[in-house]
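FW: tagging you since you asked about this chain on Friday. Here's the raw sequence from the shared folder, copied in full. Didn't touch anything.
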Amino acid sequence: MSDKIKKVSIIVSKGSLDGIYPGLIMGNGARMEGIEANLFFTFFGLYAILKKYMGSIKIATVGNPAMRVPDAKGFPLPTILGALPGMSAFATHMMNKEMEALDIPPIPEFIEMIHDAGGKIYACKATVDMFHLTLADFCPQMDKVLTVGDFYDIAAGGQIIFT
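HL: got it, structure written out here
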């Protein structure tokens, strides 16, 4: 019996850079290892696959106790400073710059890479209905809108990861 993971189903529920990228990195890594990857976008994570928003996802600077300046080893950023106008845009710019230096693609390109590598991209039906979305709102890589039951059927026999 092999202990190797054969299938992962990753739930992406947060709509910030630090909420979306872990799922994308894990999904892409799975495909590069020959592991079946299903990404299920729900609640605010859905913005990662909405054409209008996927290229402009930001970092949340308010309420993030791990936020530090000028880098991960720096001083904690007090929540009140995170609320200053432009702080989220500045933090997002800095994070995008660091990811670009590491050759980590922007979200739209990452979604396309995962899809082209055989990863499946799904949207949560309850969220689609709650946000009054249509299929036209989604990027072309979105494979299907699924109910939670459909997601469990697809995820059966694999690992479920919640980011």
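FW: The mean pLDDT is 92.
HL: agreed, and The longest strand covers residues 7-12.
FW: great, closing this out.
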